[in-house]
User: Fold this.
Amino acid sequence: MAETSNGSNLAEITAAAMAALEAADGEAALQAFERTWLGKQGPLAELLASIPRLPAADRPRVGKAANQLKRELAEGLDARRSAIAEAALRQARSADDYDASLPAPRSPRGSLHPITRIRREVEDIFGSMGYRVLDGPEVELDHYNFEALNFPANHPARDLQDTFWCDNEGHVLLRTHTSPVQIRAMQRLKPPFRAIVPGRVFRNEAVDAKHEHTFHQVEGLVIDEGIHVGHLIGTLKGVLREIFASEIDIRLRPGYFPFVEPGFEVDIRLPDAGSRGGVLADWVEFCGAGMVHPNVLRAGGVDPERYSGFAFGMGLDRMVMLRYGIDDIRHFMAGDLRFLTQF
Ligand code: FA5
Assistant:
């Protein structure tokens, strides 16, 4: 478009744009209007771009008028769009088959995250067995996460490699497991008691199909007189039967956790593991467990001469993977709706 100093060009643009807006009768026409008159390449955009080349005396006047027109066209577009929508609604309402009593279209709804779903199921299962559900802080003290759990001062789990520390002095950390709540529970509750602690835990470790830096555990703690390993195994088998609705193979291997003696790694295998691929095809490490160490009972203020107890820490993410046949833990936190809407 030719450069102008007298604004006649502006008058032509105004007239043409107003006529186009008036003629626009639907969404497609409105979008075409927006592209032509408010886009980067239309006549008005060209006029605005030409302002620096105008005589200095004309620049403020033409610039002001062109910008004012641009604002008016944008407002006009909004108004036209509303008017068209309103007219369509009015027409629909006046049609013979309009029924105001029909339910409104459903608004889209989210769904529970699979981990939340299974956590609630696990809480119900243990709840029906007389367990109370406890909570504990995610930002924890070294004392509860390690020290009171009988970790020797130089244990590698205290190393920076595994733990996200929150201070430079080594007192405050993101809990690496739910076991610190064992101590908090013993300090608060009088034995006998049974409790589970579902919660988020954090480890400074490499992520792969089976390992996340942020994952979920369910701690279990039972303190009473005469508790032995048989109670632990019976409890785990019963709970697994409920969760997977079938008898599950479990395998106990000796495992070292400073807060239990003896300690076990518990592996499980699905009945149809052989026909599955990836990490679910074989035994999967499922939880750590054992009999509560006397030092830990003492740290929680419980008399080890009178009471004994068992404890376990299940990987909730692993449980959900096995239950739904998910072969990569990274799906849980990827925020991909294609994954999340399947549950
Ligand atoms: C523990 O964390 C112990 N506190 C468990 C325990 C509790 C033992 C009570 C004895 C008595 P471990 O580091 O093995 O143990 O982790 C327990 C479970 O968490 C594992 O079996 C696994 O299922 C899960 N898990 C561990 N690391 C990860 C990870 N990076 N990503 C996902 N799940 C994990």
Q: What stands out?
A: The chain has eleven helices and nine strands. Residues 177, 179, 203, 205, 211-212, 215, 217, 219, 257, 260, 263, 285-290, 311-313, 315, 317-318, 329 surround adenosine-5'-[phenylalaninyl-phosphate] (CB under 6 Å). Strands lie at 132-133, 139-141, 172-174, 193-202, 214-224, 249-254, 260-269, 284-292, 308-315.
